[in-house]
Fold:
Amino acid sequence: MLLSCLLLALAFQDTSTYPDPGPHAVASKNFDWNDAERKRDVPVKIYYPQDVKTPVPVILWSHGLGGNREAYVYLGKFWASHGYVVVHLQHKGSDSAVLRDGGMQALRTAGNARNAMDRPKDITFVIDQLTKLNQDDGDFKGRFNLNAIGVGGHSFGAQTTLLAGGQKLGPATSFTDSRVKALMPMSAPVPAAILREQAYQNIKLPIMHMTGTKDDSPIGETKPEERRIPFDKISGCPQWFINFQDGDHMIFSGRMARADNEQKKQDVVFQKLIKQCSLAFWNAHLKKDAQALDWLNNHMKTYLGKHAASVETKR
Structure:
């Protein structure tokens, strides 16, 4: 098994659609912002292409339960190296501090409606802060293309992503931010069956959904076969759905430091595929790259091969 995983990792070294890392040197900067209106701290980490001074598209990334702004480094650095500003949010109340201070029971409780509502409001607040930086910050003035904003996230962060794009938590709740132009939910949880028909009606943005055949919930009740429900229920916009063969919930997390040797070798392969497909999606919809769009529609399924149990599209 170990040998086969190693061979898989080696096989992908020379077949990248995009170089890894990309052509740009990457720097990062932390901000500890406070939303005075909500009396809420919103820390962020910004990865950016150090040598690009013209405006580039922006990706906001939302972590899962128990995460923080330091997680998912493999995505932030890779996307930034290909000419994106990538902003990793930290959502107070459902971040790593909850796990540190209260353990798994506290983390389960943190997946509540209050935190679910606070998170997309964090997205809107951060876009407001980026607008200010773009106007007058010495390091970032004029470097953000705020007409090309994407939002992505994992697990609870995938729900945050869909909420920012129009998903409803209930009949009267909406957190849509019209400045968001594309969505990338990974391992999205799903609402109760009674809410599913109405929950996704207002989402009309391009979306790339990702999951895995073993994507069970460490916390929560969403089963692997239910991860496709947002893709199935959303209509009227271009969508791509990738279901990684034997992928579990944590292949998206960048768990490498905590994984055993076998997991590390598997994750090398999965993370390479995730990076390649996600960058093609962002390029197609935030940079309006026609070649990237063609690759998504006509070549991605072949590229993923046996590593995807299914690759589906809606156009």
